[in-house]
Amino acid sequence: MSRVMAARRPVVLAVLLVVPLLACRGAARPASSRAQADWKWAHEFVSAQDQAQPAMQRMTVWHGTRADPRWLQGNLLAGLPVGEWTEWYPDGHQRARGPYVQGAREGAWGTWYPDGGRESEGAYLGGRKEGAWTYWHPNGAVKARGSYLAGLRDGAWRTFYPDGNRESEGAYALGKRTGTWSNITRGGTAVAWEPDAPVPDVLETTAEVEVRGGLSKAQIREVIAAALDEVKRCFEVRLLLQPALAGKLATNFVVVATGGVREAETVAEESSLPSEETRECVLQTLRQLQFPEPLGGGVVVVTYPFVFESTR
User: Fold this and answer.
1) Which residue pairs, CB below 8 angstroms and at least 24 apart, start in 12-15?
2) In the structure, what pLDDT confidence band is assigned to residue 118 with cuts at 50, 70 and 90?
3) Hey, what long-range contacts does 269-276 have (CB within 8 A, 24 or more apart)?
4) Percent of the chain scored above 70 by pLDDT?
5) pLDDT higher than 70, residue 180
6) I need a surface site. Which of 32, 77, 83, 186 has the fewest CB within 10 A?
7) Using one digit for the tens of pLDDT, what is the confidence trace for 204-218?
8) H or E stretch including 65?
């Protein structure tokens, strides 16, 4: 908050924002009164002091749900984000930073975890990831390294476990795995993936998701979606050894006041996935997740099912 307030200039025209910033990116304003009540918007237009670009506006925007507020700050030109933009968590830690060109992300971008640790770093071209990217685990260890072409994984990729040991290595061609991949289980077993091997998939039965506490289903889903590749790899490694492996894994976990996960366990009576190794790998992945801090503090109890299947 203090960083945003400090960015104000002496001459400020403050008005109530009628059209949210997301409308500048083509997203519609929430239609229901409940949705409108869950979003608060404020902005200030600061004189650009630039006669060459009279349409340039400096915008500071507070937006988000009641349980997940965030700050954005940057320039608008003719209604589109341009130049450097920064996003912060509610406590003032930086969440993301990078430039826009005519409303699309362009150039070097970075994201950070709520505690200030690096989460990802790479470049965009025309709003899509391009070139080399690096991802980190919340503990600071490298999570993945590889490159993108037009927003799709392309070329050599390596992934790593939080302890720094290699997890997988291979190549992508426009978003699809190609050639032989090397996968290392958490126990150290090496497994090779061939192009004709079963292709793993993870389905989320979101209708069965239950959330009790100060976070919304959307907030839980956003964090899980970012970790879905890691969940899929838990299944993929065992699938190479058990080609017929499939089933449902229902999980329960508890999010504490700091946003970390304190407990994670399998709901045995609702699960049919027979692989104990896959179950434990998924639970370990859930224990490492970082969620927004729950509204009002306290804990949030989540039931989240995954369905694992494969195709050839």
Assistant:
1) 12/44, 12/45, 12/46, 13/44, 13/45, 13/46, 13/47, 14/42, 14/43, 14/44, 14/45, 15/43, 15/44, 15/45
2) very high
3) 270/305, 271/247, 272/247, 272/248, 273/245, 273/246, 273/247, 273/248, 273/249, 273/308, 274/245, 274/247, 275/235, 275/238, 275/242, 275/245
4) 70
5) yes
6) 32
7) 666 788 999 999 988
8) strand 56-65
Strand-pairing partners, residue 69, are: 64
Tokens representing 190 are: 């090496």
Which tokens sit at 127? 């709003």
Torsion of CA 184, 241, 157, 226, to 10 degrees: -90
Q: Measured between alpha carbons, how far is 134 from 145 in angstroms, rounded to an integer? A: 5
Kindly tell me if the per-residue pLDDT of 64 is higher than 50: no
The beta strands (E) that lie in 78-141 are given as: 80-88, 94-101, 104-105, 107-112, 118-125, 128-136
Q: Which of 130, 135, 131 is nearest to 145 (CA)?
A: 135
If one compares 188 and 124, the residue with the highest pLDDT of the two is 124
Contacts for 3 with CB less than 8 Å, ≥ 6 apart: 71, 88, 92
Q: Tell me how far apart the terminal alpha carbons of the chain are, to the nearest angstrom.
A: 51
- For tokens 């997940």, what's the residue? 68
